[in-house]
Amino acid sequence: MIQQVREKKPLIHCITNYVVANFQANGLLSLGASPVMGDEIEEVKELAAVADALSLNIGTLNQRSVESMIAAGQSANEKGVPVVLDPVGAGATAYRLSVIDKILKEVNVTALRCNAGELAAMMRKGWSAKGVDAGEGDADLTALAVDAARKYGFIVAVTGETDIVTDGDIIHQIHAGHPVMASVTGMGCLLSSVTGAFLSVEKSADAVAEAVQFYGEAGERAAAISEKPGSFQIAFINAISTINESKYQIGGRA
Amino acid sequence: MIQQVREKKPLIHCITNYVVANFQANGLLSLGASPVMGDEIEEVKELAAVADALSLNIGTLNQRSVESMIAAGQSANEKGVPVVLDPVGAGATAYRLSVIDKILKEVNVTALRCNAGELAAMMRKGWSAKGVDAGEGDADLTALAVDAARKYGFIVAVTGETDIVTDGDIIHQIHAGHPVMASVTGMGCLLSSVTGAFLSVEKSADAVAEAVQFYGEAGERAAAISEKPGSFQIAFINAISTINESKYQIGGRA
Amino acid sequence: MIQQVREKKPLIHCITNYVVANFQANGLLSLGASPVMGDEIEEVKELAAVADALSLNIGTLNQRSVESMIAAGQSANEKGVPVVLDPVGAGATAYRLSVIDKILKEVNVTALRCNAGELAAMMRKGWSAKGVDAGEGDADLTALAVDAARKYGFIVAVTGETDIVTDGDIIHQIHAGHPVMASVTGMGCLLSSVTGAFLSVEKSADAVAEAVQFYGEAGERAAAISEKPGSFQIAFINAISTINESKYQIGGRA
């Protein structure tokens, strides 16, 4: 599917946080996608309507950007543009949870891309998250992901040591990636918008699983060059631009 | 002229977008310039008044920052500080076009640095741009750049495969650069503020052409080290810091 | 102390500028800390209350973020969470000085991390700063740092060719670092939040001096790999993740 993504050159409208915006834009360009990042209420409906996917990220949310996310999401919904939500730091504050609830109420989200701590927080399960990092807990993540997918009617991609992708019916477990990915900010955020690019080719759990698989393999390839976070970050952008096929079948190693 | 820029160490006030701000600041530091990036209305007049150039960029514009851009621009005008406008994604939304019109009405812009799609949008010519990327079209860019320069009384630098710099009278065509530059976000944005640094030495189309030429050569040198977008980005910042003279004459290869 | 920082994995709440946010987050992750970067008034009290340190940075301040900084600072004070203030570009505008005064009036700041020009501006001494860069002047920095520490009751870390750390009583002079550090944006900003991480282990001038010493050594190690600003930046993030002990005693070379 990566070939189809590169041929389509999808336009990805990102309303994202200012910590990762540069990395996210460069990752999308390396993928062959075109990022556009406006978050002003006066223009987001127009941007989302012509995009091939909309990527919403609450990492440095504020009242102004939340309003823009909802307007952009509704515009994307009207045009059938897939919407990916990244609920960064969901459990960190009550405000984040209330914003996520509001977005989910007003926008039809196609896919949720998050870490375990964020999923647990959204589903009100006990979890010891650390700010925006995943943290630790005992929840059965696969069951939780299936529950979330059924409750909200979207595809869920929870990434971590094992990645889980489900639409509530199909379940993919993906074993790709490398631990150093947790030492670079925005790795999850970029994956969320890469997921949008794959969804622009096909709106399915399989497409999301392919995005996650592709991304993990890019991480493995970059980690083979360097496991130090600075060098890894650069090698990872390079890897996204050069990997043209998956070594593995969807759902696990071949 | 690069030697004069490095000796002057110009202070460049940038009101820019949060996607490229880091890259833009690092590029200016590598050039030997000092970036300062405040966008709060309470302080932008003061910053612009003491700067050696003002660089305005609408990549992630919002109502607050547009107000600041105009205030800063007027302050720069009062002090004779050159102003460079980068109309990022001009054709992407009606809002962007209206903001550009407003800025051009209220501020005397010294130079416009843009891509072909943005110039075509500003001049209301047909062009198929892709978000903030250049896109494709049939307009005669040189004629369009000359028209724009005469209409608005500023220097125009349109960058792409061939770069065109004109003040409506002198026309420079520059053949420098490398295709990988289109795969790194903020390459155009940084050039706009580098253009400001050159304009702080001399307010002329020749100075803008030298900036564009210098920048393209830095791109060539970096691409000789790596054509992968992650590594290129780092090699490019290195190249800006080390190139001390142009291999070519202004206006074409020697 | 670096070992203790890595074991603690402190959560650092940063309200920072969008120019350096990515670099700051990656630097903190490399250190083994967890950055969280919300700046919305609705959530900053909650974030600061659970953090191990709060890092305030006025690089791209605006009226909204200043309000959030004060709310976060007061929340940190209530919980005994150390607060580091980075008065970026203090002397650049009257607005910045007024904001710094306001923050210092309403928040108990544990440590101030700044350059010479910023300290001089805060203490209303003559100094020729350049935007947000240090600039040049004749003030006796050690005396000025001691004065500031006594006046405001915080630890002062002024970094430059020689770094000075003082609580108004103990004085550390640190000779670490490399000139290329001045060519990368956010080097000071990241140090400020690294200082927060060290303060989360021990609230003392010694802890701040260890942070500054560690940071300078990381700079030396990275500069030994490359003195070009692009490559240095990556080598520096790598160095932060790998240095596990100081070669030197606090207060000077052994």
TrEMBL record, chains A, B, C:
One of its GO terms (molecular function) is ATP binding. GO terms for biological process: thiamine biosynthetic process; thiamine diphosphate biosynthetic process. ATP binds at residues 113, 159. Coiled coil: none annotated. Pathway: Cofactor biosynthesis; thiamine diphosphate biosynthesis; 4-methyl-5-(2-phosphoethyl)-thiazole from 5-(2-hydroxyethyl)-4-methylthiazole: step 1/1. It is an enzyme of class 2 (transferase). Its EC number is 2.7.1.50. It holds the Pfam family HK. The keyword Kinase applies. Keywords: ATP-binding, Kinase, Magnesium, Metal-binding, Nucleotide-binding, Thiamine biosynthesis, Transferase. Substrate binds at residues 37, 186. It catalyses: 5-(2-hydroxyethyl)-4-methylthiazole + ATP = 4-methyl-5-(2-phosphooxyethyl)-thiazole + ADP + H(+). Its cofactor is Mg(2+). The keyword ATP-binding applies. Belongs to the Thz kinase family. Catalyzes the phosphorylation of the hydroxyl group of 4-methyl-5-beta-hydroxyethylthiazole (THZ). This is Hydroxyethylthiazole kinase. It comes from Jeotgalibacillus alimentarius.
